Amino acid sequence: MKPGLVEISKRSERGPRPRQVFTSHPQRGPAEATEDYLETINSLINEKGFAASVDIAERMNVSKPTVTSIVKKLHNQGYLVHEKYRGLKLTTKGKKLAEEMQRKHAIITKFLLLFGVAEDVAREDAERIEHGLHAETLVRLETFTEFVLSNPNLIRELRLAKEK
Fold first, then answer.
1. pLDDT tens by residue, 89-133
2. Phi and psi at residue 83, in whole multiples of 5°?
3. Total-model pTM
4. Which residues lie below 8 Å from residue 91, measured CB to CB, with a gap of 6+?
5. Burial class for 131, CB neighbours closer than 10 Å (0-12, 13-18, 19+)
6. Where are the alpha helices (DSSP H) in the chain?
7. Does domain 5-15+99-163 match CATH 3.40.190.10?
8. Structurally, what CATH architecture does the domain formed by 30-96 represent?
9. For 62, left (φ over 0), alpha (ψ -120 to 50), or beta?
């Protein structure tokens, strides 16, 4: 049986998100980089209980010296505490921003899945979209997505329209 939109959407709500590897974004600004690093660090802490520089580098597809440099900046900006030889710990400020980015990512991914976008593509696209989205737009996407998911007839109609 072919998985339906509802099953895919529910699958994306269960547990921590699958391991994500970020591709480089040459046009990415400092704010987006900060958000990506915090999101990655928070995911690693949730998955493994800690975030090591080597894991961050691997996950984000960057060099370890790049991670070291960014970690120092994030520490200086009050987003995390770096205890030498003990790992990283997000501050309240860092955790709040990381969780907000993960929330945005989940909303956008769920929205894209409604249209039959493959889950890996939806996650990748959500990563690109999440940084520039206005808060009002995000609220409307979330409202629309939840409305569609709570109305099975709309999902059936969407599937039929997709097949045409």
1. 999 999 999 999 999 999 999 999 988 899 999 999 998 898 888
2. -100, 115
3. 0.72
4. 78, 79, 80, 81
5. middle
6. 5-13, 30-48, 53-60, 64-76, 92-114, 119-129, 135-149, 152-163
7. no
8. Orthogonal Bundle (1.10)
9. beta
